Amino acid sequence: MSDSIHFDPSDTVRVGARRFEQSPFRHLWETPETLMGVYAGRFYAKHVGEDVDACYWTLRRKAMLYDVPERPVEINGPDAVPFMERIFSRRVGDLKLGRGRYAIACAHHGGLFIDGVLFRLDENRFWYVQPDGALETWLLAHAEGFNVTVTDPKSRVLQIQGPASFAILQDLTDGEVTEKMGYFHSGFFSIAGQDVYVSRTGWTGEIGYEIYTQAKTDPDALWARVISAGSPHGMKFGSVASMGIRRIEAGILDSGTDFDLTTNPWEAGLGAFVELDGADFIGRKALLKAPRARRLFGLTCPEAPRDGHVILDEAGVVGHVTVGAKSPFLGKGIGYARMSKAGDWIGRELEVRSDTGALMPCTITDLPFYDPDKRIPRGLDRTIP
Question: Measuring CA to CA, how many Å separate 188 from each of 195, 201, 212?
């Protein structure tokens, strides 16, 4: 979703809408200034004319509502567990009902194919919530020999993120969501008289929840109820622009933007999610021999770097920026640096060169930029900036 948070309304083209899915909520938030993008085959709002910095602070201090294009894919059947342990690099059999788990999938050569969150809805029924990428095709291509079905549950996702999100969800569910619903917990709840799936997850590094619609969900009724519950808490709707800033601060990666098939999990800093002593998942043999040195880092600059800007040392180009933003909280430009080769980069003072040739000093840092133990989304740090 965050290929770039810099907007140039003149740099757009007209695209026929029939090939991609429109959000059922679009008519409820669209403005004349809306700029759309396409992600996971779905249109989404990259910008709706809002003040992005103001939305960022609403996210940090109150709550933001986002209509996001994440796409759940359902895997169901007696062989669901062994099938997914063939696809993903983490164990799946020990995932409890009503829980989610971050999981990555690799190609046969060990390159990162996709990342997302896996939920266990029932004993043999799972949803994998994917970002951009041909996940459903990938699953179907590898399903031979497994008694599973792979389907699109036609679920759309609303995210409510920020320190007020818990109070909003309590109102929405008539108190059924409690503090016992921990980070990455999930379950079915009734909102506006409709069954929805709710998880305590998000893409912001803040405490937050995601609401997944079901096939028969009335989007207008659900939206009206969410707005009525959120408004007393100062909740606002926004595009993914403010979310994009916060996800960079939190060190959250975007598939296809920050890593791709040319990157192995250790190079992207995701080695902790590879269980080589588990099942023989796709890519395991290659990863047993793969280099385990990191190539993706953070960087800070006086101003916001942009995706595609190159990073230089005294000898020449050593990497490039995958995504960048100006952090209102940190008061400086931040972004991700994808280095051409592994090395002792953290702490190095380098330069970023823009498309025009202008140079700007930068410092390579670790990720995330703050809250490394995820105390904020876990609800352990409730400090409001």
Answer: 6, 14, 9
Closest residue by Cα to residue 370 from 323, 320, 338, 329: 329
Type of residue found at 192 = A
Length of the chain: 385
Residue 121, both tokens: 């809805």
Using CA atoms, how far residue 31 sits from 35, 41, 67, 216, in Å, is 9, 22, 14, 27
- Rounded Cα distance between 205 and 369, Å, is 11
Q: What is the pLDDT of residues 116-130, one digit of tens each?
A: 999 999 999 999 999
Q: What is the DSSP letter of 20?
A: S
Hey, what are 185's tokens?
């917990």
Condensed to tens digits (0 to 9), the pLDDT of residues 283-324 reads 999 999 999 999 999 999 999 999 999 999 999 999 999 999
Instruction: Indicate if the pLDDT at residue 15 is higher than 70.
Output: no
Q: How confident is the model at residue 226 (pLDDT cuts 50, 70, 90)?
A: very high
Please tell me the pTM assigned to this model.
0.95
CATH 3.30.1360.120: which residues of the chain?
1-292
CATH of the domain spanning 294-385: 2.40.30.110
Looking at the domain 1-292, which fold is it?
Gyrase A; domain 2 (3.30.1360)
Q: Which residue has the tokens 């917990």?
A: 185
